[in-house]
Amino acid sequence: EIVMTQSPATLSVSPGERATLSCRASQSVSSNLAWFQQKPGQAPRLLIYGASTRATGIPARFSGSGSGTEFTLTISSLQSEDFAVYYCQQYDKWPPWTFGQGTKVEIK
Amino acid sequence: EVQLVQSGAEVKKPGESLKISCKGSGYSFTSYWIGWVRQMPGKGLEWMGIIYPGDSDSRYSPSFQGQVTISADKSISTAYLQWSSLKASDTAMYYCARGPGYFDYWGQGTLVTVSS
Fold this sequence. Notes:
The complex is a heterodimer. By secondary structure, chain A is an all-beta fold. Helices cover 0% and strands 49% of the residues of chain A.
């Protein structure tokens, strides 16, 4: 099973600042990596797939990069609605697909 | 519009059985996999398993193999997650989502509470 490790666990950022979230895979997953955003009481929402392709309707301030074992989600200028928990997920080798443990982005 | 609508919250006792559902609409239900994801209280997302409604081919995470059963009825565009004997540790929110790789559409979640 591929283990996905996200860092940091919590990121404190001021509105308007840049946020950089990391996700590392225990073995290569090529570019088969997705990012999700989850707000309290809501289902997760797909942000990025294929490591760098924004899903439909996702603002351009969200960008993904990386391949192999190292991935990054960048939020260029945090808006109030971006404070949430973010998860990465690999879909290269199954079963199972696996999620990271999440990074909480909170207001500084 | 693609929608996945899940059945309502459940409160069960340990040892009871349960089957929750996920109804798809707005797309060809038999052409996409449907997966299930567990989220225990205050915790992260866990991939449980997935089914292809077109032929009922299913795959499970080793962590959930033998603990749950995933099925689908393509005639009514509905996927299911079931337990034969619930445990208190099954208390969680369960989401269905459309796959097979990344999940692009998600249901609203079904909260399952198991308590004596």
